[in-house]
């Protein structure tokens, strides 16, 4: 089950089209009549890339968010992910924001889905092409 919130200058049909463009690559084609019990699934090994063009052709900014699912949730794994986020976050920011001046927003942090998974989230918002950002 997926919940979406879109904010901004959108009409209803644009919002529905954006939601469909996110759901179709995930194999979700239609709304469910009844919501399933809450849960989180393990990602398959490898990686999945979801790309979306912005709706404003004059907007120069883009963003890359990389989610690394590391381990099943436990207090120990959550603490290790938080520690890794702190250590790597400083280096990530120093290298990509300070030295390479790659983007205005550069962040590495831990995420934890209680009773599911922990991992790291890497975020860069930049005027540079997202493919260039991802390659760094």
Automatic annotation (TrEMBL):
InterPro entries in the cross-refs: Metalloenz_LuxS/M16, Peptidase_M16, PqqF-like_C_4
Lineage: superkingdom: Eukaryota
UniProt xrefs under SUPFAM superfamilies: LuxS/MPP-like metallohydrolase (SSF63411)
Residues of the Coenzyme PQQ synthesis protein F-like C-terminal lobe domain: 83-134
GO molecular function: metal ion binding
Keywords on record: Metal-binding
Protein name: Coenzyme PQQ synthesis protein F-like C-terminal lobe domain-containing protein
